[in-house]
Amino acid sequence: MAKKVAVLGAGSWGSVLASLLDENGSDVKLWSYNPQQVKELNEEHTNTKYIKNFTFADSLVATNDLKDAIDGVDYILFVVPTQVTRSVAKQVAEILADRNQKVNIIHASKGIEEKTYLRLSQVLAQEIDPQNRKSISVLSGPSQAEDVVTHDITLVTVASDNAQAAEEIQGLFMNNYFRVYTSDDVIGVEIGAALKNIIALGAGALYGLGYKDNAKAALMTRGLAEISRLGTSFGANPLTFIGLSGVGDIIVTATSTNSRNWRAGNELGKGHSLDEVVNNMGMVIEGIATTRAAYELSKKRGVDMPITSAIYHVLYDNADIKETINQLMTREGRSEIE
Ligand SMILES: NC(=O)C1=CN([C@@H]2O[C@H](COP(=O)(O)OP(=O)(O)OC[C@H]3O[C@@H](n4cnc5c(N)ncnc54)[C@H](OP(=O)(O)O)[C@@H]3O)[C@@H](O)[C@H]2O)C=CC1
Ligand SMILES: O=C(CO)COP(=O)(O)O
Q: Degrees (nearest 5) of the Cα angle 297, 303, 309?
């Protein structure tokens, strides 16, 4: 029997994942808090603000009603921006508790919550009562929505606290263009996914400033080194960072001109202000909030993260980008592997 899935968040990624699940034969409801967007999805079968030049199948149903969206579902997939995940989870938790409903929770968002410094599986675990959830999993990897919707070959990972749930979710999403691996390293997958956006901002900025391929490779490699330093300090498996949600996602996000984070960095590199960049994007740029969360976290935990720190000062202290790059380049020499 078809599995029932609620996809919460009808932006670029939520609508494309809902479309993929619908295509795979699941019974999908796509929830958006925006009634206009629900109307467009149900009547025109488009989502023009987020996914250009694409018509969704008639079978994909959108709803504005969260109670309706999660009624009787096997899975709830959260794909709203990181910083609003807790508020959506609170609403979901209340409905599930009232109905005594128990579901599998998945999220596909990439970020660290500001102020609490929590990963999203931790946020979801705090908000949704264990009596109402069977498992919490994260789906992540190099997967630009714009490429998935055109069926580009895409490989991702599902990491879970529950091996059986991970395998079920793998089966739910897999098809001939979307291949899913399982993992038990929730910490590593979530940290890799969240922090690669910081490196994508930096890569965009370097490009905007006119730096070339050597600079990009340097940033991506040393960026990954500091991400894995922070991740392993929390107990992540170091091998996760050379996998899809580590190096894989850095490659796509720090090189794709579709990436919102790369594009934001590029605009900053060209001299636009952060306010201008955010206002013009109209979609979430996760790396901005996550840079602050990761910077503060690195200070708290005593983990050396020079690139994150440099990008933090550019974003939040108005530091000059060229001068910041100069400071990074003239740091005392050190051994590559420490
Ligand atoms: N886009 C991609 O290719 C990929 C994105 N991701 C991750 O998925 C997550 C979502 O990204 P993406 O889809 O790109 O983001 P978008 O900006 O495209 O969409 C976000 C959606 O969330 C909605 N939203 C905003 N605030 C709230 C709220 N308080 N309650 C409910 N809904 C809200 C937005 O509505 P509105 O705009 O109307 O306010 C919009 O529909 C991010 O964490 C991102 O890193 C992961 C892999 C690929
Ligand atoms: O995470 C992504 C691809 O894996 C999407 O990144 P952006 O949000 O920068 O577009």
A: 65
* pLDDT tens column, 1-50: 899 999 999 999 999 999 999 999 999 999 999 999 999 999 999 999 99
Q: Give the tens place of pLDDT for each residue, 250-269.
A: 999 999 999 999 999 999 99
Question: Count H helices, E strands: the chain?
Answer: 15, 8
Active site residue 322: no
Record: fold of 192-329? N-(1-d-carboxylethyl)-l-norvaline Dehydrogenase; domain 2 (1.10.1040)
User: What residue ranges do the domains of the chain occupy?
Assistant: 4-140, 192-329
Q: Which atom of ligand 2 is nearest to the CA of 285?
A: 8
Nearest ligand atom owner, CA of 112: 1
Domain 4-140 sits in CATH at: 3.40.50.720
Task: Count the Cβ atoms, other than its own, within 10 Å of residue 282.
Answer: 9
Position in ligand 1 atom list of the atom nearest CA 258 = 3
**pTM for this one?**
0.98
